[in-house]
Design brief:
Blueprint (H helix, E strand, L loop, with lengths): L4 H11 L4 H15 L3 E7 L5 H9 L5 E4 L9 E5 L2 E5 L7 H16 L11 E7 L6 H11 L11 E6 L10 E2 L4 E2 L1 H22 L6 E2 L4 E3 L2 E4 L4 H10 L7 H6 L16 H14 L5 H9 L2
Parallel strand pairs: 1-4, 1-5, 5-6, 6-9
Antiparallel strand pairs: 2-3, 3-4, 7-8, 10-11
Length: 298
Amino acid sequence: MRKNIFKEIEKNVMRENMDEKTRQKLLGNLLRIKNQRINLMITGATGVGKSSTINALFGKEVAKVGTSADPETTEIDKYELDNLVIWDTPGLGDGKEADNKHSKRIIDKLYEKDENDNLLIDLVLVILDGSSRDLGTSYELINNVIISNLGGNKENRILVAINQADVAMKGKYWNTEENRPEKKLQEFLENKLISVKRRIKEATGIDTEPIYYSAGEKEEGYIQQKTYNLSKLLYYILQRTPEEKRLVYAQNMNKEEIMWKDNDDLQDYRAEVLEKFVESVTKGMAIGGTIGQAIGSL
């Protein structure tokens, strides 16, 4: 059974030796975070691995709760995990008529507001297929559907991620033993990131920081392909999430350590992720150890 991270942190704060003013401030911060809600939209062309990405990030306990609004007018799947809501959009690229319908559904969701009259969607994760040379559908989605209708603070509300990095060159130059790209594939992927960033900038004027990763593959509970750069993906998601909401992800992230193990090592993403979670509660107070222990133990 999944532990309640908020209760674990509260217990640690209560038994830690600290002055009462600091304790009450931490508990107040924690209470506010418990009432926060994150709405994450995951979108992309058909076959890019949206479902695999959701399962890799959040594990088997992702629960489908139905479709949003009227099933005849929208087919955006809604997955609800405590205060984390994932909107999984239909894949584009299955014909002009279907794409027009799907695009309208996505746009309608982007304009939807919450009970406080703020835009409902906190972040849009756009997934691209690393093995595809034709990204026309993806650019159409990013430039003309997402960015054009994203509202304010666009650069912090979109993340572009290239999945299936391991098969970007048809499986060549992937070191299976070490589960990472060899130099030739790494250069290919880096050039792809530069190209994607440039094309989005030219079309929209918006700067993005695309990353590449592999969501891995499971069959009947057995890992067929390991994940790669999943910690980096989560780190970039947290960077684009308001500080007061970040801890919501900690409650729902995949608890299988192997899923987070292999990354490009440009940064210690796992440590950075933990730090982002801690900052969500401490807000600059020098008392992060007790929070980190509670999160790290789960």
